[in-house]
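Hello again, I could really use a second opinion on something today. I've dropped the whole record in just underneath, so have a look.
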Amino acid sequence: PGCAAGEAAALVLVAVLWGSTGPFLRTGAAGLEEVRRQGRLQQLLAEIRFLGLNYKYMVPFLLNQGGSLLFYLTLASADLSLAVPLCNSLALIVTLVTGRLLGEDIGGKRAVVGMLLTILGVTLCVAGS
C-alpha cells in the first residue's frame, strides 16, 4: 500500500506539472509569431533563441519536462493502464482550471461537458480493470 500511495502521489504531481504548465507555455510564447528571419534555418534559430532566452517560457517548459521525467521514472513500477488515464484526466482538469485562472477562454460549457465525459470514460476504464 505504501508503494501504491507513493506512485499515486507521483502521478498526481505529474498531472499537476503537465496541466499547470500548458497555459503558462502559451503565455510565455506570446510574441513568437512576430519573430521574422530570411530562410528556414535562420527562422528556426531565431525562434529557438526567442524561447530559450525567455524565462516566462523556459520556467514552465522545464517544470513540464520535470513532470515527464517523473512520469517516466514512475512507470517503472506503476500500472500503465492506470497511470496514463489518471495523468491525462487530471492534467486536463488542471489545464482547464489554470487556463481559466489566467483568463483564457476555455471553451465554455462545451469544454466542461467534454472534461466530464473524459473523466467518466477514464473512471469506467479504471473501474473495469
Notes: The chain has one domain: 2-128. The chain is about 80% helix and 0% strand.
